[in-house]
Design a protein that fits this description.
Blueprint lengths: L1 H11 L5 E5 L35 H13 L5 E5 L17
């Protein structure tokens, strides 16, 4: 779905220069912290989590697909990896309702 979205955006935005793609702490295997040694602070240059745990981190496949697609394009991209996103919520608006 991500790659299909980028294909459409690339087609309808001929002056596209940059794409920001938000991933998160799962890139580093945070959800496997009991079995995977983590060494904070995490850095974008850290190696990927090795198999078998890394085989289940869906961000890796998405990143590889975007990288391959972007090679022939004029635009570039970056992924950001916040470990949490904090914001205000309006009264009565909740993703859990």
């Amino acid at each position: 779905m991500l790659l299909n979205t980028l294909k459409v955006i690339d087609k309808i935005c001929p002056d596209l220069q940059f794409v920001t793609w938000a991933t998160g702490g799962k890139w580093y295997g945070f959800e496997h912290s009991k079995t995977l040694p983590l060494h904070p602070p995490m850095k974008e240059s850290d190696p990927r989590v090795p198999p078998p745990i890394g085989d289940h981190i869906f961000y890796y496949g998405q990143h590889d697909a975007i990288s391959a697609f972007a090679k022939s394009k004029r635009w570039t991209f970056a992924d950001i990896r916040p470990d949490a996103i904090v914001s205000n919520a309006f009264a009565g608006v909740s993703e859990f309702e």
